[in-house]
Specification:
The structure is a homodimer of 280-residue chains. In chain A, the strands form three sheets. Chain A has a nine-stranded mixed beta sheet. In chain A, strands 3-4 form a two-stranded antiparallel ribbon. A two-stranded parallel ribbon of chain A has the order 7-9. With 280 residues, the first copy, chain A, is α/β, with parallel strands linked by helices. The radius of gyration of chain A is 19 Å and the shape is globular. The longest helix of chain A has 15 residues. In chain A, helix 1 packs antiparallel against helix 8. Chain A has eight helices and 14 strands. The first copy, chain A, has one domain: Putative cyclase (Glucose Oxidase, domain 1, 3-Layer(bba) Sandwich), CATH 3.50.30. Chains A and B meet through helix 1, strand 1, strand 2, strand 3 and helix 3 of A and helix 1, strand 1, strand 2, strand 3 and helix 3 of B. Strand 2 of chain A pairs antiparallel with strand 1 of chain B, so a sheet runs across the interface.
Chain lengths: 280, 280
């Protein structure tokens, strides 16, 4: 896929059609209502040394969790129980963009790869965590800027090939306080940190990444109406992860992240288990 | 959890209450109608060397896939599309035991751990693949027996601590032929391979495993009405994976399997992405 051309087409259509959160809102109350088997990993993983702990980067998937739209959470029902039925099963009704979840290129680009056919090699990646928690504490719609990436690289060296680059804003601590996590002061607006447009373009064009992740509800900051980072990431064939947990537990460590997103048929992404295998 | 006692209680209740597939059948047409963050890994992973490819052990999650009961498949709906809405999202209605999925202790043991609180360290494991495809080709309800495990150990050494032990029966090749995968000759019976009761007891009591996996619809063979392996595995606090794909691609190789099962709240397990990181 030629990413600059795709991004241009998506952006032009967005400008023409009023590509905004209103499009989400018109679908509010959503839930109230032979592929390649193996994929080569970048050689750097051959240098992996001592993976000796697992960190869970996933929140519990729950009807009570925060969602981009209000009342968009899953429905959870008990189907059978051990007493008296002998075994226990639940049924879920759930949108693909709920809880800790993945955005795959088809989420924003018509005809792009869906999650069931997405290259599995891209789901295993060295983690980079960029800490913007200090400015996010002062300004909810703070963004990862190119300067933040440059500061990380000055301390750690260039972002490794095939990296999954996370924004750590400290927002995951608010997960169980839905209004605080959404940053809605009561007027329906959303206010939380995300990747800035220039930073996501820099990562796609100047670095060789697998994807990005955020500890908030959207790859773009809450006050975005143009979804620049979504467009840039999806148009480049990369993926995003939203609602990531516990990034502070891997910050400064060498970790390989495995993105366990089920192969939802024709999926635009979906709820996932994201695990970090931490070395040392 | 004291596994022999739990297993005894579950078995007694099963004997008393007629614990059989009839209990499943009465719920047919199901879909038609603060936790520990990090977990230490066993030391053996510190010896991991060159993980340089990823093998997808997961089938596509689809309404058309085989299920234990007929008509138990998920419902997949398009909510919004890139044209004209600007982005693409699907909604799923899905039981926890659909597609490539995990069985967690609470599936068969009242009060046992659910998937959202299950130890993440158990989700990362060295793979052992026991090949019973030859006898399964001759007898659909063939089982993994203690002798099969002993034969594997004679060739490979003792099953490593923390292993995820898979049955390879060759059944995954039938995945897209639902009647063949279910082994229903037309009379409603199910016929496919699984773990024998003695083999699962051996693994739980004589070896130190994380769980087991099968390339069929159930940990027990299709003709089981007592679900001995389910009871043994769940009572011991272990887990099972059903509907595993592509095991032949990792057979004989050194692989670490990551079980990407989302943290479904209070979940009995659920649809998962199962990935093998293969060395060498």
């Amino acid at each position: 896929m030629c990413s600059p051309e795709v991004a241009k087409v998506v952006r032009e259509r967005a400008a023409r059609d009023g590509f905004s959160r209103r499009n989400f809102l018109k679908f509010g109350g959503m839930t109230a209502a032979g592929l390649a088997v193996a994929s080569a990993l970048p050689m750097r993983l051959a240098r992996a040394q001592a993976m000796n702990s697992v960190v869970d980067l996933s929140h519990v998937l729950s009807p009570d969790g925060p969602t981009y739209l209000p009342n968009e959470g899953p429905i959870r029902e008990t189907v059978v129980k051990v007493n008296p039925d002998g075994f226990y099963i639940q049924r879920w009704t759930i949108g693909e963009h709920t809880g800790t979840h993945v955005d795959i290129p088809a989420h924003f680009v018509d005809g792009a790869e869906t999650v069931d056919v997405y290259d599995v090699g891209l789901l295993v990646s060295p983690a980079v965590v960029i800490d913007i928690s200090e400015k996010a504490a002062a300004e909810p719609n703070a963004t990862v800027e190119v300067a933040d990436i440059e500061a990380w690289e000055a301390a750690n060296g260039e972002i490794p090939a095939g990296a999954l680059v996370f924004m750590y804003s400290g927002w995951d601590a608010k997960w169980n306080d839905v209004p605080a996590f959404r940053g809605d002061p009561g007027d329906g607006s959303l206010n939380f940190p995300g990747f800035g447009a220039e930073a996501s373009t820099f990562l796609v064009e100047q670095r060789d990444i697998h994807g990005i992740g955020v500890d908030t509800l959207s790859l773009d900051p809450g006050n975005s109406s143009t979804f620049d980072t979504h467009v840039t990431i999806c148009s480049a064939g990369k993926y995003g992860i939203e609602g990531v947990a516990n990034l502070s537990a891997i910050m400064g460590k060498s970790a390989t992240v495995v993105v366990g997103v089920p192969r939802y048929e024709a999926g635009s992404g979906g709820p996932a288990r994201v695990l970090a295998l931490v070395e040392g």
